[in-house]
Amino acid sequence: MTAKRSLLSGFGGYLPERIVTNDELASELDTSDEWISGRTGIRQRHRAGEGDTAVSMAAHAARQALDYAGATPSDVDAVIVATSTPDEAFPATAVRVQAELGMTGGFGFDLSAACSGFIYALSVADSLIRSGQARSALVIGSEVYSRILDWSDRGTCVLFGDGAGAVFLTTATPESGEAGILSTHLHSDGRYGDMLYVDGATGQRDRPAHLRMQGRDVFRHAVSKLSASVDEVLAANSLTHAEVDWLVPHQANLRIIDGVARKLALPTERVVVTVDRHANTSAASIPLALNEAVRDGRIKKGDLVLMEALGGGLTWGSALARL
Ligand code: COA
To answer: Which residues form the Beta-ketoacyl-[acyl-carrier-protein] synthase III N-terminal domain (predicted)?
Structure first.
C-alpha cells in the first residue's frame, strides 16, 4: 500500500471591495507613493468594510475553494484557519466558518503563526491527511490587519492589507499520479519575538492592540532565512532550483521576493506577485496568490510550486507541491 498524500484540489480568495492607494494614504500621513512603492513594491491595498470580518472573508474564500474542486461542505473533514486577527478569542474562526458553510460534522481550529500561518496550517492539514485522521481539509488564511495597525506609525501602517485565501486539500488517489504536497518544513525562533509583534490581545476593547515592527531587522532575517528554507525543501525532495516551475512567496515586500527568486535563479515571470495590489495580507497572502495564478491559467496541472513565508515569531517555513 502506498503512503497517503494530500492534493491541492481547490482554490479561493476574497478581497474587500474598498481599495486604498498609496496616494490616498499620503493625503492622511507623512508618506508618499514614491517611498512606499520604491521600498516595498506596494501600490495599493484592500481594506475591510463594516461587514467584512475574519469569519465572513474566510467563509467566502472557502466556498470558492470548494466550488473549484466540485465539492460541498459535507465533503470537508477539517477546517484550519490561520489568522492573527480573529473576530473573537473563541470560538475559533474555523468553527464559525463551519457554521457559515452549514457543516454539521468534522472539526475546526485556528492556528497562530503570523505571516507564516498559511504554511503552518498547510503542514498541519497535510499531516492530518497523511495520518488518515482527516480525508480532506479546508486550509484558510484570513486577516483584517487594518484593525490592528497603528495608523499614526507610517513605518508599519502602509505595509498591510486585508483579505482571505483558501485551498481545499483532498486525499490523493492512484489517478493523482505525481500530484500532491511533497513536503513542508517549519521553523520558529522566539528570541526574535520582539522584532514583529502585536502589543496585546485582540479581545481587549479598552486597550486596542497594535502591530509593532523593527522593519530593517525583519528584512535582514527574511532574505537569509527564506533562502535557507528554499534550499531545505528542495534538498528534502532531491530536486534542483531548475525544476521549480513557480515560486508563490508570502507577499510582504517585492525586494524580499526578488532576493529569494534570485537565489533560485528563477526569472521574474515564474514568480507570482500580488504585493503590488494586495500589500501584505499576512496568512492570506499565499493562498490569495495561488488562487489568482491558478485561475488565470499561469499555474497548470503538473507544475511544481514552491511556497515560502516568514513572519512574526519569528516563524518561517516552506512547502513544495505538484499541482
Ligand atoms: N513614508 C515615508 N518615510 C518613511 C515611512 C513612510 N511610510 N516609513 C518610514 N519612513 C522613514 C523613516 O522615518 C526613516 O526616516 P529617517 O531616516 O529620517 O529616520 C526612513 O524612512 C528610513 O526608514 P527605514 O525604516 O530605515 O527604511 P527601510 O529602507 O529599512 O525600509 C521597510 C523600511 C519597512 C520598508 C523595510 O525595512 C522592510 O520592508 N522591512 C521588512 C518588513 C516586512 O516585510 N515585514 C513583514 C514581514 S512578514
So the answer is: 109-190
